[in-house]
Amino acid sequence: MAEAGEQETVSPEESTDESEEEESEEEPKLKYERLSNGVTEILQKDAASCMTVHDKFLALGTHYGKVYLLDVQGNITQKFDVSPVKINQISLDESGEHLGVCSEDGKVQVFGLYTGEEFHETFDCPIKIIAVHPHFVRSSCKQFVTGGKKLLLFERSWMSRWKSSVLHEGEGNIRSVKWRGHLIAWANNMGVKIFDITSKQRITNVPRDDVSLRPDMYPCSLCWKDSVTLIIGWGTSVKICSVKERHASEMRDLPSRYVEIVSQFETEFYISGLAPLCDQLVVLSYVKEVSEKTEREYCARPRLDIIQPLSEACEEISSDALTVRGFQENECRDYHLEYSEGESLFYIVSPRDVVVAKERDQDDHIDWLLEKKKYEEALMAAEISQKNIKRHKILDIGLAYINHLVEKGEYDIAARKCQKILGKNAALWEYEVYKFKEIGQLKAISPYLPRGDPVLKPLIYEMILHEFLESDYEGFATLVREWPGDLYNNSVIVQAVREHLKKDSQNRTLLQTLAELYTYDKNYGNALEIYLTLRHKDVFQLIHKHNLFSSIKDKIVLLMDFDSEKAVDMLLDNEDKISIKKVVEELEDRPELQHVYLHKLFKRDHHKGQRYHEKQISLYAEYDRPNLLPFLRDSTHCPLEKALEICHQRNFVEETVYLLSRMGNSRSALKMIMEELHDVDKAIEFAKEQDDAELWEDLILYSIDKPPFITGLLNNIGTHVDPILLIHRIKEGMEIPNLRDSLVKILQDYNLQILLREGCKKILVADSLSLLKKMHRTQMKGILVDEENVCESCLAPILPSDAAKPFSMVVFHCRHMFHKECLPVPSMTSQAQFCNICSAKHRGPGSAILEMKK
Fold this sequence. Notes:
Blueprint: E1 9-10, H1 18-21, E2 30-34, H2 38-45, E3 48-53, E4 58-62, E5 66-70, E6 76-81, E7 87-92, E8 98-103, E9 107-112, E10 118-122, E11 129-132, E12 143-147, E13 150-156, E14 162-169, E15 176-180, E16 183-187, E17 191-196, E18 201-207, E19 221-226, E20 229-234, E21 237-245, E22 257-266, E23 270-277, E24 280-286, E25 288-290, E26 297-299, E27 303-309, E28 314-321, E29 336-340, E30 345-350, E31 353-359, H3 362-371, H4 375-384, H5 394-408, H6 411-422, H7 426-438, H8 442-445, H9 458-471, H10 473-482, H11 490-503, H12 508-520, H13 524-534, H14 539-546, H15 556-562, H16 564-573, H17 580-586, H18 591-604, H19 613-623, H20 628-634, H21 640-649, H22 653-662, H23 666-677, H24 680-690, H25 693-703, H26 707-716, H27 723-729, H28 739-780, E32 808-812, E33 817-819, H29 836-840, E34 849-853
Antiparallel strand pairs: 1-2, 2-31, 3-4, 4-5, 5-6, 7-8, 8-9, 9-10, 11-12, 12-13, 13-14, 15-16, 16-17, 17-18, 19-20, 20-21, 21-22, 23-24, 24-27, 25-26, 27-28, 29-30, 30-31, 32-33, 32-34
Helix pairs in contact: 3-4, 4-5, 5-6, 9-10, 9-11, 10-12, 11-12, 12-13, 13-14, 15-16, 16-18, 18-19, 19-21, 20-22, 21-22, 22-23, 23-24, 23-25, 26-28
CHCR repeats: 568-712
Pfam families: Beta-prop_Vps41, TPR_Vps41, zf-RING_Vps41
Subcellular location: Cytoplasm, Cytosol; Early endosome membrane; Endosome membrane; Late endosome membrane
């Protein structure tokens, strides 16, 4: 901490040694502030000798025997003239209502700040220490201890008189004392003792390590971390002691408690004060260094270290060198470290200065990051802790970050960060755009400009478009494509593009961009004309989107030349807007395109273009013969004579065969297959399709003198014509290729037919037997007859009312019931009796009879 007049707040860098300032990148853990106001006035005329801290106020003792009560800002609230000489120690109880003071001339005072109760005593030797009971405010705890050559305990009796008792003497001056709960710890020339006020027993003695140090020059520092943990710092040694309860079996004549040293380690410098910080320690150290020039020791700046205690060592967390006033003349005993437990405040007290150290908050963390130019981390920290930061604004940090990136020349990153930092603030966006313009980097910020919520002034967008138009046509086209057309004045940009086209009229990028601008401006005619000139793929989308069919009636050929498939699909999808007749007329001079259109029309609907089917015959014959035959098969509107004439002229055999067969001239069709195609398989297939015995006869007669044809017939006609008819007509001695295989195939086919018949017969017999058994089981089942059943003939109850009378009834398996006398008498020719109802309905056998008699 550098001293600069009456500067109150000190930056973290000034808290470190000059040799470390440039190299250290580690953030300090504490920040420092000089306690000013009333303290400044006091220390200009006097010197601080001791201080104690309460959560509500501070108490400062001076070398001229004054005690000042201060608020946390250092303003004087009360002043007490206690002695003309140095105040050695001040003690406060936990409530902050009672104060104990001792001085170098032997005076001891204990009094209430808000009550009249007092204790005054002057001893014949200097009193070095005083400690009042932490709960002195209670009537049962009116106790305090003082220390000079011996340690005295003062207690107030029931008659409000004070009585004293000696707790310890004979080991030199008592120089430090700390009271916590029921335990009092003090240090004399020999070591540290702990006394249990409840059991009135001394429970430990911790000897000091370095006996070569003068105890008056290097006093012991004590502090209680909690009610059972005492921290001792003496010379360069630190010990952490834990007070534990002794087990009942071990007590005998020993105290009920004992002390265990849980951690012990050495430090680099002499300890002037200790304080706990969570599980770490804050250590105020007195430093002596050797001058390189004179090789003599001198007093260096004191250090405030945060260390992490381990069992036999420690780890340094942070270390700050403090430039307190007058540090060159101070000794180890002149420094004191006091702390406020509730707020983690640490007070470094020296004769001419009081410095407050406190844990750094999020604002301090951001300050440090900004100072180290770690803007991104600072921005992230501010966003995470935006509810807790008080001195910083996220926007200010973000703007500083953008400026930093611009200064470094990282324009793209700076522009990208604008999106997050500037958000919806249109004024800031416009300011940043002008700033990027000044440095010639409008292109860098263009991809990140807001395009809605907020929308900037049209001039901003026009300025960027002009920048691209001057140097980057592709970038200009990209922006026009990406930006909504209402962001800028469209006519201004259109005029600028036209000016550039005067210099380069064939530039496709500019022409396409101009078409897009025309589209935004709803000037679709001009846009369509440019798209067709460029043969651009978006021409169809433009027509569909803006319903430009009236504009393309005279441009159908251009559209078909560009992409016939898409053009045809579009025309067919919109027949209500451009009629089939109109399209066919426009394509009259381009029959190949006319065919493409009519072919797709026919595929969609065989009847819509029926008036053009005659024309299509010639078109298919000329441009698409593979689809001619399917067309002839599917069309019911084409004139067969015209089609036959065209096919004859062009010698299209397959098509002619189909037309002849369709016109009923099957024999001519078969003859053409045999004579023109010489394809027996096709001839056989044709005969199968026609299924005409005379046609088979013609085929056999034509093939009888052609051995290859005979082989084909033998292999294929077995299931349609009796092969014997063919075999009998074969001339003796004719050599027929693969005759044996053909005959074997005929026999195999016959055998397969026999097997199929036998298999079907077996299945039929098995099914019949199964069904017969099922019927028999069904008919053998009993049928329930009760009083609810009636005779189907007379409709009287089937059972008599008097069950004792004899009766006779007939029940059929169809579950119809009759009185026997109600049934007709069977004929003489057939004794079988059938249900009258089922027989009338022709249900077949429904009527095995079940006769019941009684």
